[in-house]
Amino acid sequence: MSLPSLQVSQSPEEKFREFLASRPRPQRFTGQQRDLVQHIFARHHHFTTEQLIRDLQSANLNISRATVYRTLSKLVDAGLLRKLEMGADTYYDHDYGYPQHEHLVCEHCKRLIEFQDPAIEEAIRAVSEANQFQFSGHTLIVRGVCVDCNRARATKRMLDLI
């Protein structure tokens, strides 16, 4: 399931430019950063740094590996991207312009499935309130096996019995 984007007051590029300018030591917004932000936010999908670098090369965008790594870190700090740690892999997901959502990750094929559930949001709020905890956000990743991989495993087991 792909989640619909939300209406936002600023483009990701404008928000990132504002973030860089508001730092204790303001940083300039480079052409490579602009191209990178535009590329990342032109589509909504989860990606690793290496996947992004390959995608940039395929798109003939000349952005250095160092700039990609530094900019991804800044995009997370700016609240534009969210880091999803899944074992040895780190994925990035849009955090700006998309509703709060959770993830199911298949341990076999690595497929990520996005979902929303108001009951999860309410439970987090209730637990936080009960513990006088001021929460600022959360990331929920549920690990398991997707329907396609389950089906393939079941078929293999049936064939093993013959």
Give a written overview of the molecule.
With 162 residues, the protein is of the alpha+beta class. The chain has 2 domains: 9-93, Arc Repressor Mutant, subunit A (Orthogonal Bundle), CATH 1.10.10.10; 99-162, Dna Ligase, domain 1, CATH 3.30.1490.190. The protein has 6 helices and 5 strands; from the N terminus they run ααααββββαβα. It has helices at residues 12-21, 31-41, 49-58, 65-77, 118-130, 147-161; strands at residues 81-86, 89-94, 102-106, 112-115, 141-144. A 3-stranded mixed β-sheet has the order 4-3-5, with no helix packed on it. Strands 1-2 form a two-stranded antiparallel ribbon. β3 (102-106) and β4 form a beta hairpin. The longest helix is centred in the C-terminal third of the chain and has 15 residues, at 147-161. The mean pLDDT is 90.
Largest sheet: 3 strands, mixed
Quaternary assembly: single chain
- What would CATH call the class of the largest domain? Mainly Alpha
Strand content: 15-25%
SS elements, strand count: 5
DSSP helix count? 6
The H-and-E topology, N to C, reads as HHHHEEEEHEH
Q: Please tell me what the overall shape is.
A: globular
CATH architecture of the largest domain: Orthogonal Bundle
Report the CATH superfamily of the largest domain. Answer: Winged helix-like DNA-binding domain superfamily/Winged helix DNA-binding domain
Fold-level CATH name of the largest domain: Arc Repressor Mutant, subunit A
Give the class from helix and strand content and strand pairing.
alpha+beta
Distance between the termini: 36 Å
Task: Count up the domains.
Answer: 2
Low-confidence stretches: none
**Cα radius of gyration in angstroms:** 19 Å
Strand order in the sheet with the most strands: 4-3-5
Helicity range:
40-55%
Q: What is the typical, i.e. mean, pLDDT?
A: 90
